[in-house]
Amino acid sequence: MTPRWLWLLLAVCGTWCRADSPPADSLNRGRILYLANCSMCHQVTGRGVPGTYPPLAGSDFLKDHRSESIRALLEGLNREITVNGQKYRGQMPAVVLNDTQVADVMNFVLNSWNNPGGVVTPEEVKQLRSRSAFPTFEALSAANAYKPLPPAPEGFQLRELVRLTEFATRLTGDGRSDRIYVLGQGGSVSRLDLNLRKLTPLFSAADYPDLASGDVGTLGFTLGPDQHLWITMNQRVEGGPLVSNVVSIYRTSAHSTNRDPIAPRLWFRTSYPYGIGPYNHGISEIRFGPDGLLYVSSGSRTDGGERGTDPNLGTMGETELTAALWRLDPKSSQPTIEVIARGIRNAYSFNWDRAGRLFTVSNGPDAHAGEEMDVILPPEPGQPPRHHGFPYQLGLRPAAEKWYPHTPDAPAGLSFVQPVANLGPDGWAGTKPGSTFDPHSSPAGLVWLGDEFPEWARQSFVVGRFGNLIKTDGAADAGFDLLLVRPQARPDGTWEATVKTLLAPLARPLDVYQSGPGKLLVLEYTRPTNFKDQVGWLPGRILELSVRPSTK
pTM of the predicted model, to two decimals? Predict the structure, then answer.
């Protein structure tokens, strides 16, 4: 017979063993939830952004402030904290996860990246939630409900088409039919039927062959003249002397019985050292130009040209392939990259105006430089591409007035193309003209409005602004809107634009797509319409902004 004290010891030991080692399924679920909800700021590696987003890797704050770390997920965090000796004054929104999901995320974080380990239970989370600003999961969910639609601008009407069940990054179609395609951030593709207002899945991340192992992000998406989908993909791949960003372009290779493009196949692949800290922007927007060639935006791997200190990530600053705009021949079986513009930090979107001129909109650095709209002139044969400043010159500030102490000196004799100057009245809160949009407002989505739109709006670009993830001291939230941008050339060859608010507030609009004459689709990434309310992330919806019948 086993003594009673031994049964007690075994029971206590069993409790300790469970507490020391979270179940494998909790760790796996936590990793997936972390990538979807936390990695945008704290990064896939948990290293955060120095001075902006605190590290979770090797974090003394997690070790010493366990309960507060959990409560940060439940109600957000809005105070100065010190992590590993560095102060952080940023704001973290609550994350919309239930008690089990919060426990899973915390288990993954606590047991990764040289953190102290341990286990968090749903019961512990429930107790902490009851004393938080949102005492129940239902209260937090209510704070993240879809917001009422804003008033439509004059001559337009606005309606909600569909609510998303996963985060999406792009919209595309042929601009004529009611078939619209939606790209999920992990590579899934669905068809949106405008008449039925229904999403039908077409293929998932598991259907991409030849994927290297590593975390996947898909940011570019277009339907080509061949009625096939072209998709850009970025993968963090470890195992070599340097961590790599493997960039790929996939093209669908078949059509379903419903005429939908399916079966993605690898068309192009290259790689370069993965970005420093969180600044691996990778390749994003992909579009066919008026010349029939394929254009691709390749973002920077640094914030502002810093060389970095992690030898596994490379310490070379930018590479020949990054902070640039590419052009490729879609008919080639072995395409080569032609760089047509340099010094473009991160053009999440680009498009052409009626005259066939190419414009990009780019995200700026953590320094409070403005976001840019740039006019791209591809180089003449035998000439180098024009340089738009990054990382040497940002906005309208001369290169000699550096934004960072580490800003590299510009090569001798290199001249820069100025961004489009913002004359107002909107889009730039500082002294006008600005260049071109408020700092950290994150322009994303770019559509040219032709004659099928009201006269006051036509011959302009619509620019979506995702909204700030960094708070500028004393400034209001920036972005969460659509802007109407009307550019015009100056006599000296530089450009300026009048900028007016078209639609606000919106829940982090990440893409804008013209689905037909007088019709725009707006992809809301999530649900909050500002940053200050400190509420979290749930998948958003797709809206339709269209011209009212008989409106010209």
Answer: 0.81
